[in-house]
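Page header: ASSEMBLY MODEL / two components / 191 residues total.
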Amino acid sequence: MKNPLDSLWGTVIAGFVLTVILYYVVKSVIGG
Amino acid sequence: MEMLPGIYRWIHIMAGVMWIGLLYYFNFVQVAALKAAQADSTAAGITKHVAPRALFYFRWAAVVTWLAGAALLGSNFGAAFMLQAGFHKIGIGAWLGTIMLLNVWGLIWPNQKKILGLVQATDEQKNKARRVAFLASRTNTMLSIPMLFFMVAQTHMPM
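Prediction written out in full:
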């Protein structure tokens, strides 16, 4: 599998995906 | 004394703009520019004159950003890093920023010194250093996206 960090846009998309994951993690912690 | 948090925030943002601005310059501009410059043998202009200056401001702006951020957190420093109630968002931002600072000083800068010839390295070591520095820089670009989101979210985005 290709490393997404080898591509600039793969890096940016990975950053947005990580943001969404962390957002829901924090939201569940605050909500819980 | 009541002006201090505002001054810390001002310095934190100014240094942060320089740090992340140069990070984006490296990733969005210089990587592609170097590839093109190597094709027409003009890369020395970048590696000799631009990259060392950019790296100087990049790595020291990272330190100033972190220190001003720590000063801004003040007595809440521990609460943020331990992700205590009310500090989840800024805590995530602070952790991401800290990981990025460690990446700059622990991976990017030591490997860039080999690439730029500031320390002795064989061709094999330079090739390895190029890959490590590149991936560390790309990792920081990726981490900067949630880091900035959570820094802003602490005061501007109710969750």
